[in-house]
Amino acid sequence: MKKIRIYVLLTVTLTMLVLLLLTFFVCQYSMRAENHVRYVGIMNVVSEKIAKTINGMEMNAMNVFDEVEKNMGSPEAVVDALMSKTSLNLDVRGYFAAFEPDYFPQKGRWFEPYVHQTDSSNTFVMSQVGSARHDYTKSDWYMRAKEESMSFWSDPYYYYDGTSISGHYCTFVEPIFDSNGKLVCVCGADMTLEWLSKELRQIDYRSQQNVLLNKYAINKELDYYTVVVNSDGSCIAHPEDKNVPMKEVVNDLKQRRSGMLETTVNGEPVTIYYGPINNISWSVAVVVPQQDTLKPMLILGLILIAVAMLGLMVVWLVLRSARYAEVS
Questions:
Q1: Are 14 and 315 in contact (CB under 8 A)?
Q2: Burial of 84 (0-12, 13-18, 19+ CB in 10 A)
Q3: Among 295, 241, 292, which residue's Cα sits nearest to residue 266?
Q4: I want to staple 61 with a disulfide (CB 3.0 to 4.6 A). Which of 114, 189, 190, 301 is the partner?
Q5: Region class of 189: left (phi > 0), else alpha (psi between -120 and 50), else beta
């Protein structure tokens, strides 16, 4: 009978071990699928919100540019046109009209009025930023507008003139031509990358606090964050100290494909879910520390081991009771 009890105990142990492993792998697959759906969903929501914001900037900018085109009789009329609709979208840092050299002789070779917000308030002021030091005609966005004759978002760039205007920008650009098809000026609406990074942080916070999104999550303290990357893989908006270049997937970014990447950021293993933003050559990426995705699996593994140990203890106690019954 002793051998039978040992065989029974071994059989139950092996059976429970097999069931334990099967249960763990099935649950692991389910959790991976749940994580994939969760973070792809977050990525799509962030992408949609950014696209909506950018679309609003474009629409407001086109209204400003239309006013400029209608009021080019004098430099003062141009400035008034730039000021006319600025308050409709406070997400835009400033609007400018960069004129062809000597278009207004009284203003000299470089005339680029820039109507922009100040750091201290949402009011707009005008600065004349065109000069020999800032020869905008040699800027990439100006030359591209002249060549392509269509609106576009510029590549991110850094502007510095020693004032509060200095900073990292991306600009929505629109060239304006006269009735003979000759370029008159290039208009632009500036968005700061610092503002975009702040917007991403707010979006992340709202999604992390979303009750429905986190209702069934085993681990409710996920530490994911969102970044925006250019088509060349460079990170243009991100939380502080969280620059995430994605050179490994440049082809996907250029061809506007979605995907998943496992890499390290500041020495920490992460999983990145990325996808394109509509109407602009950027992509949004949700960066998830792998320890956050592994923690629920670790919790599950510990629960299953505890259940298995409890089951084995129950079997052992039953067999032990049966042995004492035989002796008595």
A1: no
A2: middle
A3: 241
A4: 189
A5: beta
Contact 190, 94 (CB under 8 A): yes
Longest Cα separation, the chain:
117
The pLDDT value given to residue 182: 92
* Interval 230-281: pLDDT, tens: 999 998 888 887 888 888 899 999 999 999 998 888 888 888 999 999 888 8
Q: What string of H, E and C letters represents the secondary structure of 156-167?
A: CEEECCCCCCCE
- List, for residues 45-77, the tens digit of each pLDDT value: 888 888 888 888 898 899 999 999 999 889 999
**Could you tell me which of 275, 189, 173, 285 has the C-alpha nearest to residue 236?**
285
Enter the tokens of residue 318: 């039953």
Give, in order, the Cα–Cα distances in Å from 88 to each of 58, 203, 227: 12, 22, 27
pLDDT for res 83 = 87
Give pTM, 2 decimals: 0.75
Strands 152-153 and 268-276: unpaired
Neighbours of 25 (CB within 10 A): 10
Residue 276, pLDDT score: 93
Could you give the 3-state DSSP secondary structure of residue 268?
A: strand
Q: What is the DSSP letter of 276?
A: E
Query: pLDDT for 89-110, tens place per residue?
Result: 777 888 999 999 999 999 989 9
User: Are 297 and 28 a contacting pair, CB within 8 Å?
Assistant: yes
Cβ-based neighbour number of residue 323 at 10 Å: 13
pLDDT the model gives residue 143: 93
- Encoded tokens for 288: 């998830």
Compute the distance between CA of residue 292 and CA of residue 270 in angstroms, rounded to an integer.
9
